[in-house]
Amino acid sequence: MSTDTESATAPSTQYPQGNVIHHPAGSGPTIWFGDAIYTFKATAENTNGVLTLAEASVPPGSGPPPHIHPHADEGFIILGGEIEFLNGTTTFIAEEGSFVYVPRGTRHRFRNVGLHVARLIFFFTTAGMEGFFNELGVPARKGEAPTPFSDADRRRIVEVAPKYNLKLAP
Q: Over the stretch 76-96, which tens digit does the pLDDT of each residue have?
């Protein structure tokens, strides 16, 4: 049993104050990035630069080319579908319920190898990669489908990538 004297001398836990972030299901800034759809739930702006987190819908055959994030770790939770990951020079399949962690500096990519749209959550620590997606993507529009990147869009990705410490690594 604790006494007033004991509780007065016990160390206290301090928690930083901030604003809780809440995006109800289906909410958050949503963009088309090529033929994929990304809804951002956490960004550098609302996490003090700590975390970027997004929900993605990726059509069959889609995904980024091999690349490296020298200054950010990346993680994925597969909500549905079959995603093939490249880890350096080898590949593996991650299915619904899988978690994949990619340490900074690791050459990787993902690609939907299934028959249906894959859904996943992905995050970066530290934050900031949402700027890359926002600069190259376009705001999603209800009732319409996104279109794959054109050759001009792909050239723009190559130009913009260094600005966000993203190294393309074919």
A: 999 999 999 999 999 999 999
Domain that holds residue 105: 25-168
3-state secondary structure of 50: coil
How many distinct structural domains can be found in the chain?
1
Distances 166 to 71, 115, 127 between C-alpha atoms, Å? 9, 29, 13
For tokens 């004297």, the residue is: 5
Residue from 149, 74, 83 nearest 120 by CA:
83
Within 10 A of 27 (CB to CB), how many other CB atoms are there?
Answer: 10
Quote the CA–CA distance of 102 and 95 in Å, as a whole number.
Answer: 16
Q: What angle do CA 42, 44, 45 make, to 5 degrees?
A: 90
List Cβ neighbours of 54 (8 Å cut-off, separation of 6 or more).
Answer: 28, 38, 39, 40, 41, 121, 122, 123, 130, 133
- For residue 99, tell me if it sits in a domain: yes
What percent of the chain shows pLDDT beyond 70? 89
Q: For the domain that residue 160 is a member of, what is the CATH number?
A: 2.60.120.10
